[in-house]
Structures are given as structure tokens and as C-alpha cells.
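Minutes, project check-in
Item: structure for the 347-residue chain
Input as provided by the requester:
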Amino acid sequence: MRAYHRAMRTVADDLAVRWKEDPDVDVHGDMTAATLEIIGRAGFSTPMGLLGDNAAAPQGTGEFVAALSRVLAWASESTNDLPVIGPIRGVLAAPGIRRDVNYVRGFVDSIIERRRNDDADQNDDLLGLMLTTRDTETEELLPVENVRDQVLTFLAAGHETTAALLEVALYHLAADPSVGDLIVDEELSEATALDYDEVVRLRRVKALINECLRLCPPAPGFFRIARSDQELGGYRVPAGRAVFVLSLAAQRDPVVWGPDADEFRADRFLGKRLTASSPEFFAPWGTGPRSCIGRQFAIHETTLLIASLLSKYRLTMDKPVELRLRERATLRPEPFRIVATPRGRTR
């Protein structure tokens, strides 16, 4: 994470420049750009051309983002299709979706090919490790197709979930600017260097992030299969039956979270350490060996981006808007705008 931190900082700086030039912030667009840039720069040493200088970016990034968005939307909608409508819609959408899938794969292939043809010694990022690390038993490298799938998973799942989290956080910071003011007063200043160790110590920002994850987890739940016959809440669950754990509801249970469980309270997690034995259910990253592999990456980039932006800007809304979530590949807010005013200056 220390190595990734430097690349993340460049994205935070580029985003701050964009907001200085245009304080009327398209939150959805900017968080999509920032999270894809962080994955590209930190994971693959490849600027995506969505923020800052795009001279070194691969061709067709804009088309890649649009195609990926359509694929994610189609995949999410397909899982909710009715038995008759689903096949019909699939047939109608198939040619376009196939084109989008092929374009997305081709874009990732171009990133991998550029790296394989690059004489520079770049083996310390994620892409370099996947291309050069041999299996300890077989001495074989990962097949290129496997590397492509891993890169695509990182780009798709990694940016979508983190962008959703950042959008929820920015909504609450703009809806109630005093939340950000308190964080700045206690933990930040415009002169704060935000090196790796400083970011790790930002407890109020981490509490804000956890509260956003509690109320609006990008992944609203997960499946578990019963290994043996079980009784769960008065219901019999036979062995082999799948059960969906709806985190979105369990993390708002007033019995354990209190009567204000549906309210956003940023200090709720201050001094609170939840474990598997805690009465409060909190599992926005999933659980067990299948929990989110990119958890620490996402937490660090989110903490850094929020801290960097708050140290420079006070976030507000021109007029109140309701936070509306839509189901795509994740639960992600409907697009909204906020205003970024440089600290020390009123609008």
C-alpha cells in the first residue's frame, strides 16, 4: 500500500486541480474518473487519461468507460429479468453487448501488450507481478488470458464499488458541511502532507467511511450455502440451500444499532471496533475467504481522496437533493452535483 500511495496522491492532486477550475462538481463523473485513474496508475503504471495529463494514456479510454458502463448495466438488469422477458431482451441486446465486451477486452489487451513490449523494469506493480511471477510448484507464468481477466476484474469491480462509496460520502459531506468542517478542524489542514502514515491515522475520515458503508453498502448482500440443516430466525434451512444475507437491511437493524439506525451519524464508529461476535452486523466487504480482496486498497484510496479534497474545499449543495440509489453492478447513487468552495473563501 505504501507503493500504491504515491500514485493515489497524483490522482488526488489532479482531481483538486479540476475542482479549482470548475467548482460545479459532477460527482458521478469525477468519481468514475478518479477511481479508474487510481487503478490504472497504481495497479498498472498506466494513466487512463481521465484526469491530468493524458499524453501517456492508451487510446480509446472514453470508449472503454462507456462500453464498460453498458456491460455492467446489462449484467445487473439481466439478473432481475422475468423468465419470459429475460431471453427476449438478451437476444435483442446480444450484438451490442458482444461488441462492448470485445472492446473492453481489447482495451485491456492493449495495456498488457504495452507492458510486455516495454523494456523498462516495471515489475513492482500489480500488472508486473502477474506477468513475471512464476508458480512455485510448476514454474509456469500466468496465462495472458488469465492476466487479462484479473486486470478487467480489478478495473470493473474495483472502480465501481469505490466510486459508489465515494459518491455517498461526498453527498453527506455536502448535505451537512459541518461534518467536513469537524474533520478539517480535528485532523486536517491545507498544509497537511497526507503521507501514508498520516492517512492511516485519520480516524474521523475512517468513521465517516464506515457509516457510509453501513447505510449504503455498494454490495448490498451476499449468499451463503448451509453446510448442514439449520434453523435461522424460526425458519428451517436444509443443507445445501442458499441464503441471501441482506447487509443493506441488517446494518440498519434498530434492535442493535439503536433507534437512529436509519440516520447518518458520522461519529457512530468512533471508538467502536466491530468483530464477528459483536451484536451489530457490519459486513460491507463480505466475510470469510471470499471477502473483498481489494478492501485495503479501497479504504486507503477513499480515505486519501476524501482527506485531500476536504483539506482544500468546503463542500455544499446549491439546493438540497435526495440521495437515491440505483442498482447496477453495485448500489450506486443517481448522479448529483455539489459545489467545491476553496476553504477560507465563501461562495
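Outcome recorded: The mean pLDDT is 89.
No further action items on this chain.
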